[in-house]
Design goal:
The protein has 174 residues and is of the alpha+beta class. It has two domains: 126 residues, Ribosomal protein L10, N-terminal RNA-binding domain (Alpha-Beta Plaits); 45 residues. The protein is built from six helices and five strands, in the order αβαβαβαββαα. Strands 2-3-1-4-5 form a five-stranded antiparallel beta sheet. Helix 1 packs across helix 3. The chain is elongated, with a radius of gyration of 27 Å. The protein starts with a helix and ends with a helix.
């Protein structure tokens, strides 16, 4: 069997992972210990992020004709790719947080929703909270005025009842 035939399924697997992907981040994983790599993979898996170590030529072939082709210039040396189909900032957030503990992990670049970002851009994107956190903050902001109004109305109602009770007790005392 020819080498091309052996490599084609690997390229096809990368293409399938990139299909409908919201983001992909390229990292240099050299220097990570086995324990660190295992922990990184676990965190990424829990967030629904696909993490693969692939040859650069295979990634370049898989990137052809997609938004991820912009990453070709960053494919030098050993690389791994983290791909997310649901949360666009999840790979950047998890990898950048992990890189604080494991200094050997180097973020090279990434594509988030069609835009390419260098290492500094990915670092900034990692500061954006997840979609769930943003939605809960929005919901809290929307509920806050209603909750405050309910408290004020409740206090007015309680104060309104207090004078009526005092008047009812005053004639009874006479």
């Amino acid at each position: 069997m020819a080498k091309v035939e052996l490599k084609q399924p690997i390229v096809q697997a990368i293409v399938e992972d990139l299909t409908d992907a919201q983001s992909a981040v390229i990292v240099n994983y050299c220097g990570l210990t086995v324990a660190q790599d295992t922990e990184l993979r676990k965190q990424l898996r829990e967030a629904g992020v696909i993490y693969k170590v692939c040859k650069n030529t295979m990634m370049k072939r898989a990137f052809e004709g997609t938004d991820f082709a912009q990453l070709d210039e960053y494919l030098e040396g050993p690389n791994a790719i983290a791909i997310s189909k649901e949360d666009a900032t999840a790979p950047a957030r998890i990898i950048c947080n992990f890189a604080k503990k494991a200094e050997a992990l180097e973020v090279k670049a990434g594509v988030v929703e069609g835009s390419v970002y260098d290492a500094a851009g990915i670092q900034e994107l990692s500061k954006i909270p997840s979609r769930e956190v943003l939605l809960s903050k929005l919901l809290g902001s929307l509920q806050s005025p209603i909750t405050n109004l309910a408290r004020v109305l409740n206090q007015i109602a309680e104060q309104g009842d207090a004078p009526a009770e005092a008047e009812a007790e005053a004639p009874a005392a006479e």
